[in-house]
Amino acid sequence: MTSGITRYEKAAVAAVAVMLVAGGFIFFYAPTDALQGPVQRIFYLHVSSAIAAYGCFAAVLLGSIVYLWKENLAADRLARAAALVGLVFTTVTLVMGMIWAKPIWGAFWTWDARLTSTLVLWIIYAGYLMVRRLADPGRQAARFAAVIGIFGFIDVPVVHFSVTWWQTHHPGPVVINNALPLEMLVSFLVTMACTLFLAAVLVAIRYRIEVLTDQAAEKTVPAPIVAPSEAGGAR
Amino acid sequence: MRTISIALAVARKDLTSEWRTRELVPALAQFVVLALVIANFGFQFDSHNAPAIAPGVLWMAIVFAGLVAFGRAFAAEREQASLEAMLLTPAAPAAIFAGKALAAGLMLVICEAVLLPALALFFGAPLSFDVISAVLLATVGMAVLGCLFAAMVARVRARELLLPLLTLPLWIPFIVVGGQAVQSAMSGSGGGTGQATSLLIDLDILFVVLTSLAARFVLDD
Questions:
Q1: Which fold has domain A11-170+181-212?
Q2: ipTM of this model?
């Protein structure tokens, strides 16, 4: 606090630097796709942010289960922080996908299994955050949200396997199937590592904000009850 | 065994109070018929496109009637603060929840018993065993999920707003699978209904188990 730069600020700067490195790989190292042209470069961040979103929602699931099991406040804060960050990464995935789809498919959106299930994922976690806001803060909001965090995660495997379960326009898994040339694979892995780091930093910062919010709430609640007598006693 | 008798008692209480007031079911029945009237204007029905559009209209009507039915499931308990009294008894929250879901589900089934013949009458949609079984199987899963979130939003601000927001995304699997089953049954192709039926049963088992585990955390405070 006194040194001016907190470790959260350092981590944020590091995350930005790391994302710039990923940008370098995407734009200068990875070759241009023979068929799709430069638009294909969207792939690196699109898939990475989808994986980061999966990771965040897995953290929400974990935090939710641990909270319901042990009533552990830290687990609830982790779920809260990860849900917001996961929603941001889902938004990035959807928007980047739409930008890619316009030149390749000719339309921003098709009602394809993967697109639809991803949109549903977005709506579920938006609902999660909505419940946090509307329920009585504290135990009730945490419990209700935890239930949604557990139910909502059912959609994550649906999104992931939608390309194999249904016939879709969406490209199937290329990384696991070794369909990428080496430079593209390296660029993808670098981007994925950088995006996961960014997600971790964002969750950590958000977690810190949740801690401070909780502390502020604890401080402000008893104030109107204690203040008059204390003020009178001190003088 | 005790769980089942408690659930049946709670369900009987809800159904008795509905029978005495006759509040929800007639209103719901009117609601689904109105939904068909609105659909008629929205889609420009004729004898050719009716079999293609009728399944969509059917599921739209069920979904919105379900939202109303489950939204009301906990309304009376909230107004009388009787849910707290029920939770004070040694009955397991999961049993109370099962009873509420059973009663609300049955009311939705009654409303479907109006909707399906009306659909057949007004739009000439053929009714078959496959259609009815798909609708009933989907109702089971929709009822447990709808009741779980209804119990949740009953204690939350802006509950009318939040219930569809939470429930609809999780109902989508039932609408996807049930929609496919009804579509193939109504178009007469018949293929795929067996697979859809078994998938609906799987989904029902999954969500009945999950909601009965989660009920404790939503009801108990």
A1: Four Helix Bundle (Hemerythrin (Met), subunit A) (1.20.120)
A2: 0.85
